Amino acid sequence: MTKRKALDQLMTILLWSATGLIVFLLLAIITYIFVNGYQVLSWSFLTESPRDNMTRGGISTPLIGTLQLVLVSMFFALPVGIATGLYLAEYSKRGRFTSLLRLAIRSLAGVPSVVFGLFGLSLFVILLRFGSSLLSAGLTLGCLALPLIVTASEQAFLAVPQDYRDASYALGASKWQTIWKVVLPSASSTIITGGILSIGRVAGETAPIIFTGAAYFTPSVATSLFDEVMALPYHIMVLATEGTNITLTRPIQYGTVLVLLAFVLGISAIGVIMRARLRQSGR
Amino acid sequence: MKKLIAGAALVAVLAVSGAALAAELVIKGSTTVLPIAQSAAEKYMTAHPEVAITVSGGGSGNGIKAIIDGTTDIADSSRFIKDTEVKAAVENGAYPVPFAVAMDALIPVVHTSNPVQDLSIEQLKKIYMGKIKNWKEVGGPNKPIAVVSRDTSSGTYETWEEKILHKERVDKRALVVASNGAMVQTVAKNENAIGYIGLGYMNDSVKPIKVEGIEGNKANALNGTYPVSRYLYMFTRGWPTGEPLNFINFVLSDDGQKIVGEAGFVPLR
Amino acid sequence: MKKERTPAIIIMSISSVGIFVMLFILLFLIKEGLPVLKETTLSSIVAGTDWYPTETPPALGMLPLIAGSVAVTLLSSLIALPISLFIAIFISEIASQKMKNILKPILELLGFLPSIILGFLGMVVIAPWLQSRFAILSGLNLLNASILLGFLIIPIVGSLAEEALSAVPREIRNASFALGATRWETISKVVFPAALPGILSACLLGIMRGMGETMVVLMAAGGAALIPISLFDPVRPLTSTIAAEMGETPVGSTHYHALFFAGLILLLITLGINLLSSWIESKRKVKSS
Asked: Residue B52's closest chain A neighbor by CA?
């Protein structure tokens, strides 16, 4: 009897420890980055562009570059993803096309990020001649975000109660009218939440943009879709590995890491909280 | 819905507006030449605000490849172009034109606590091949040698391979870093390490080693006594005209060569 | 009723973009990767131990790269899977509702950490510590990268496994307790086996993530193309090789095709794991229905 109870207690301790360890480590990482990075933070850090071989100045160019990449990727991924989710939820019956579609989306979710980079390079940069640009990198990131949006949208649409649709049909609305005026608005908050979460993911990706559009240094923010961009995660990488003065720029590296972390965690936290609220209100 | 249309309009405007607002110049390539290119670009843009210069690293191989592909105007390179690259360039309709913009010396560096002062080319070669594994074999303490090298896209690596290794392969166990800056950092933190950097990256955090008894500095590079010296290049796609020509002329001018000196390299005159 | 069909057709056409993207990824990798077989044989690529792609002629032995990918995936899974499962069990079986509401978001938050940040920490924090603590040549190695990969794997496996465990019906647990089993016995002998397909599928997805990760290994794994023997050996997995070398190869060169080929190998392995995981999950759905 005691042996079994002892095992039970031992395992309970182990389980508590594993969980505690991970929570501790997460907090440690965030704290460490904060402590090492906050000294560099200031309004000018966020609004000035890098100067003097990156040893002075701020990170406004990569910050805006990241925002531009997010914009372009969402411009592609949101319409396509929502439409796909809509199809899977509202239109599809069991069929070859549907199974193929699900297979494709599921496979896309597992493609390594560097393979997306290769794909983007061969299709957008070379074949379509967009060159190394905001457009190529943004579209590549859009393809990466696509499965996330599809999944979120499909779940959102499936969560809309059938009663809403029935009521709409009872009033004589067509299927499309029902979707447009009832289902979509009802699902929109969940979809937006999914979009927000994928923004967090896209903003932090490095490998897909290395050879599709990221540049070490651009004198100003990209003004055309065909310009190269600086981006926060790429900026961290080059400062830490390829930079001309790694020791001097170390504080800036930490500052950039902190800004990226704050942006990604912040956006994701907003998404998570929104989703929790939606679940509570029964949607 | 309205927001969607507004957003679409914004992106469309952004796409079209970039058309002919500024003259653009793209520079890519060697991380050795990068500080020169970057400083020169910053000074040039201050004097010519209508020109927008984009600078990237990635390695000499990266730069030359970009000339071949047509994705850059100027390629920084810390080595001369290879025959295979010339062939590929010509096949792609690009005629690469070299401009020597500075001289450089490759300095072997070790941790500041390392007592070794001088190594022969033969010793350096054996160390990098992995045949000499311990510092005591070359007059240092009884510690294993941590060999640090550059990635294969690096012109610095190519020069080292040519002048020290004589085309032998670098030991597989060698650590690989992506830039001169990373090399300095790695060697500065590792008391067993040996690495090599361009003269412009030399600073107090690492200790330079003489090669064959000769110190690597500006004078010895210029007069040719230092065995591991080289030219730094900027390549253009065909004979340069317009902005690339102006920029190259700037780098070769007295002001430009002053920047070369300030970056720690050897000006051409 | 034509008016009714048009939106359906439009929606369906837009949806097919997803299929096209996946197809194109495969197609392009095959199109750009296969030409490498003109220059060298498949066996010398997969079994060759020398990766010196910039020599003339290039030595394209990918075995060290594949071994690097496998080693880093295995080691990180070894570290992360048990921890992930412990966390999943904790959240599902032991934590109170209040604790769950805190822990589940925390786990999710961990999953949002960009890999570049973890790679950065590996370079500037873990590497120097490893180097001084163990007196090794460099802290950028297999162990370093595997620990960091663990952080990426844990949120995925943890949340998916927790879902699988929570899906096991209450009654099964109650029946076990009624028979006098301790909580751990109930977990290990009843709940866990019942959730096994979901847990297996979660583990596979975590492994797939480890295999496909690029930035962490690029910054923290060392970069030496050799087959690792010790935990402290530097490695150069397929992912970081592609990321590091793609920028320098002229389009259309043998090296270029070799890198696409490496990407193809990578894609096929991760797709295989993905499909396996999907298949296991579908078996579960059939079982419980």
From this structure: A219
